[in-house]
Amino acid sequence: MDKKIKNKSTPTKNTEEVKKTTRVAKTKKSSSNEKEKIVLDINSEISKGLSPIKLAKADKPFTIKDEDDNNVKVLDNKTLKKFKKANNKAWKKDGREHLKNQEGLIVEVEDVHKTYLSGNIATEVLKGVSFSIKAGEIAILYGKSGSGKSTLLNIISALDRPTSGKVIVNNVSLPYMSNEKQTLFRRKNISFIFQNYNLLQNLNSFDNVETGSYLQPVKEKRLNLKKLFRDFELTECMYKYPSQMSGGQQQRVSILRALAKNSPIIVADEPTGALDEKTSKIVLKILQQINKEYGATIIIVSHDPSVAEVADKVIYLENGHIREIIQQERKWLIDKNSSENSNE
Prior knowledge:
It comes from Metamycoplasma orale. The chain is of the alpha/beta class. It has a domain at 96-327: P-loop containing nucleotide triphosphate hydrolases (Rossmann fold, 3-Layer(aba) Sandwich). Helices cover 42% and strands 22% of the residues. It is built from eleven helices and twelve strands. α6 (205-214) runs parallel beside α8 and α8 (247-260) runs parallel beside α9.
């Protein structure tokens, strides 16, 4: 019987040692599992395509440099997330998505900021911009390279989103729209004129202009294309291909393509930038004629002072701020120059 008792007590001691060893092993395994989980979580985040900024020191703020004034800004992970969401996705509805334009206005921009993130660098391109444009006006976004004028044009035309602020164009609050709805908005409301023409090289002029007409979903609003070529003295170019035309002729055809869509707003990014002075005047005269006859609102980006002189409103941008807004009586510079040249 003594042997049996002894045998029973011995396993008890061994059991305690085994349990102790098991607890240590579990602790080590648990620690190892946590490390593996962290690695898996990070790999998962990377696989989602998130910015490296979000993976580094996720529990601490990040130092962000402003390239314009060399200030050092500290943004926490939550703020960075807001920036990326505001820049790339439709804003969360908060009641302002139903805002409409005030009577007589077609563009309203209020306290708009735009910040781009690249690595750990945040560059604020627009810094609290506010202005409005009346329906039927010719407005110029004027300023030197890097002033923010092209970024502003992209935001107005639903090609980009503001980081914060209010943007209402033709009774639509743009930041709250999904990418798909913004595409439909551009199709319905915006026509584009590019500095480098962007004509389709395998189509003649008439067919290039017709592509603009196809983008107008309402057939009744489509214009008579042959009449457009006659009205703007381009009949001889109607069946020429882009390679058979001068730069000035190509730009005029690209303007007809924008007009053929018959949208309420035409935006032009440096439309005279690649043209000589004489051809630039012809192009500006056509834009004035379009504005006068069709009532389209025309918004032009330019650093050329002569372009600014033909506008109803000049919005002068400098380093992301609006330096000055000039509301002027239209001078019809091109008509004046034409009459002076004919008198000579």
